Amino acid sequence: MSHTASIQSYQHNHDFLGEHHGRNERRTWWVVGLTAAMMVVEIAAGLLFGSMALLADGIHMSTHAGALAIAGFAYWFARRHVLDRRFAFGTGKVGDLAGFSSALILALIALSICVASVERIAHPVPIAFTEAIAVAFVGLLVNLASAWLLMETHSHDRPVEAGDEHGDHRHRHADHNLRSAYFHVLADALTSVLAIFALLAALYFGWIWMDAVMGIVGAAVIARWSYGLLRDTGAVLVDASQHTHLAEEIRRRVETGDDRLADLHVWRVGPGRHAAILSVVTDSPQPAAHYKACLAEVPTLGHLTVEVTRCRGHHPH
Fold first, then answer.
1. Measuring CA to CA, which residue among 284, 288, 316, 315 is closest to residue 304?
2. Number of neighbours of residue 46 by Cβ within 10 angstroms
3. I need a surface site. Which of 133, 177, 264, 300 has the fewest CB within 10 A?
4. Please, which residues have CB within 8 angstroms of residue 55's CB and are 6 or more apart in sequence?
5. In sequence order, what DSSP letters do the residues of 163-174 get, joined into one string?
6. Strands 273-282 and 260-270: what pairing?
7. Model confidence over 180-231: pLDDT tens digits?
8. Beta-bridge mates of residue 4
9. Residue 268 belongs to what domain range?
10. Domain co-membership, 146 together with 280
């Protein structure tokens, strides 16, 4: 075996893209297309029929289309640069960066909806019920189709309460880029459902104020989704420790006999992929390959660095 071939056999593979990266990328671009088409239809209809409601909803839809395009670009960029050595641990976190950006956009959307709703309460305006209800129904159908495209791989990553052990496990393996796209679709679907309810109540019962109230309710729900996404993606971007179960599994497998872990760092490098650096202190040191073999069956551990120190007679706990 040549020296080059020998070195290559010990080098790490830094491809930490998600298992369904290609499929998620294709589906995201399909949703971008659907959202952009609906945006164009609403803006054109608003200008043609002189409806400010249609025009405003079309402009609102453009923010979601832009956020979804960010998700699609992140998939493309991560795949295009997966072997680029400038990225020390690959491009697996590009999706988390896109998810964080989309979460900020969701927060701004929630804020804008809340402000517009409060202004509507203070200054009611005439509503073209027929046009508004029709557009809301069409928008809901588009959003349901988009949600269906993103639902299969997202279904195991639904939002959960902070501190939920099982929810934390799902989020450690979530594709946060797909999750952000899914939340944008859900936000649009939610606003469509609330709009339909409010418009029907106003049309048949004269509850004009219901439109603004439902806007505030929708803004609150969207803000909560945004907060959860910001929390989860932000933790990944700053390498916050959220991998208690994985760390415990590593410790259980390594700490046998006199071997003890003096230092352990675990962080996420991509959807369902983690890296770890561990420092083993022992009376009877083994080659680093021995400890890597002990962890070979940990499925999510994609990058492992081991330091072994001999420390006779000392057993750190």
1. 288
2. 20
3. 264
4. 42, 43, 46, 47
5. T-HHHHHHHHT-
6. antiparallel
7. 888 888 888 887 788 788 878 888 888 878 878 888 888 888 888 889 889 9
8. none
9. 244-310
10. no
Same domain, 17 and 164: yes
Residues shown for the chain: 317
Q: Indicate if the pLDDT at residue 173 is higher than 60.
A: no
Residue 2 located in a structural domain:
no
In a domain, 1, yes or no: no
Which of 39-53, 161-175, 231-245, 259-273 is predicted least confidently?
Answer: 161-175
For 128, 179, 182, the CA distances from 144, given in Å and listed in that order, are 24, 15, 11
Higher pLDDT, 133 or 73: 73
254, 295 Cβ separation under 8 angstroms: yes
Rg of the chain over all Cα atoms, to the nearest angstrom: 25
What are the structure tokens assigned to 209, written together? 């104020």
Residues 276 and 188 grouped into a single domain:
no
- Distance between CA atoms of residues 201 and 203, nearest Å: 6
Amino acid found at 46: G
Total domains in the fold of the chain: 2
CA distance 257 to 254: 9
Find, among 232, 267, 225, the residue nearest to 106 by Cα.
225
3-class DSSP state of 280:
strand
Q: Is 210 exposed, middle or buried (0-12, 13-18, 19+ CB in 10 A)?
A: middle
HSE-up of residue 142 (Cα within 13 Å, Cβ side): 26
Structure-token match 């606003």, residue found: 191
What is the enclosing helix (H) or strand (E) of 263? strand 260-270
Is residue 298 within 8 A of residue 274, CB to CB? The reply is no
Mark out the alpha helices in 50-175 (DSSP H runs).
52-80, 94-122, 129-154, 165-172
Q: Which of 205, 237, 269 is where one domain is finished?
A: 237
Checking if the pLDDT of 312 tops 80, the result is: no
Q: Is residue 5 assigned to a domain?
A: no
For residue 50 the two structure tokens come to 């002189």
Are residue 233 and residue 248 in the same domain, yes or no? no
